[in-house]
UniProtKB/TrEMBL annotation:
Provenance organism: Paeniglutamicibacter sulfureus
Residues noted as binding Zn(2+) in the record, renumbered to the chain: 355, 357, 360, 386
Family: Belongs to the queuine tRNA-ribosyltransferase family.
Protein name (database record): Queuine tRNA-ribosyltransferase
Subunit composition and interactions: Homodimer. Within each dimer, one monomer is responsible for RNA recognition and catalysis, while the other monomer binds to the replacement base PreQ1.
Region (Disordered): 1-42
Keywords tagged on the record: Glycosyltransferase, Metal-binding, Queuosine biosynthesis, Transferase, tRNA processing, Zinc
Amino acid sequence: MPNDSFDATAPHPRQDEFSFDVGTRLTRPDGSVSNGRTGVITTPHGQIKTPAFIAVGTKATVKALLPESVADLGAQAVLANAYHLYLQPGADILDTAGGLGKFMNWSGPTFTDSGGFQVMSLGSGFKKVIDMKSVDQSGPDDAVAPGKERLANVDDDGVWFKSHIDGNKHRFSPEVSMNVQHKIGADIMFAFDELTTLQNSRGYQVESLERTRLWAERCVAEHFNLTDARVGKDYQALFGVIQGAQYEDLRRQACRDLGAMAFDGFGIGGALEKENLGTIVGWCAEELPENKPRHLLGISEPDDLFTAIENGADTFDCVSPTRVARNSAFYTPHGRFNLSGQRYKTDFTPLSEECDCYTCQHYTRAYIHHLFKAKELLSHTLISIHNERFVVKMVDDARAAIEDGTFHELKERVHSRYYAGAPDPQGLKTVSA
Ligand SMILES: [Zn+2]
């Protein structure tokens, strides 16, 4: 716990080892300047040109992909999960290995999220946070999804939770999260926060937001202690996480509270309904310090990405590109399709004729369809390379379009094709072969 004299707004001298430089501002179709922008994040392990899609490597691996492939497909950084690595193999192992990047043979920038999402999703949010489509507050605040056992309990000091691996009891607090994340050694860490769901009452959101604010101060204090204590380590940046669900006043207040603290950047977290995503990111972009990067946790759908970029988010992460790949779903400019369909058995075209990824240069839909049907692991690898490349490139294209003033045209073109709802137009000529 920080002592009473700790000032969470006072910066640490080593914070200048991390920086963010704003580049081109996005203009709206009417010519006014919006919150969207390009930029460059500089970390001890290299730069990230923003907007950027960050590949998710939850357990220090982007599932089914060699780190060399992740770099080749253009991903600039990898985000791992502090909760998963704390449980397995343990943060001390990563510390001894020289940190996350060395441990997994990834030389670029790395992120870890705080574990708050995973810990909290074992409790009241379990199985609800994944599907936040409704704002049904009729149930009790501590309701657990039907058929699920509560595995986490939150109090003002931290959270008790049971490991999803062996059921053992663990304690996470702001201080524990900071210690774990310092040992994991990512370039960018997130403050420990309480995740709420859209089902929580406004009263609970207010209470939770105050808890997250106090935890944020404790995270800054512990982070600076560890920065001083762990001599000889690269500086690790700390991002505060903005909660507040769908309430404008709560989001803005959280931005002002955390924005005044000595964070290096910010995460926009928690419950977001798709239709409010742009509005909420916009509130945050208006309130947060302009010279600090903003990360939006957990999005990858093309419309969400463009909305988030337009409203001022700089980086994003999502497990979807590799997760759906393992179910044989692949992205194309005409939408997402599933390679398990019989029509692909004789489709000797690439996953996308417009794609420049390694998979599309060397493999056909027919071959990958066969691998999937034969339950061969290579199908996961080949589709994952393509899907990650698809999302990374879309965000790269958006960055280039902000720079050359064609963002709105690009957005319109991507949307009109991806969401047309037309059947996959590619490969028809080979179906009857
Ligand atoms: Zn491809």
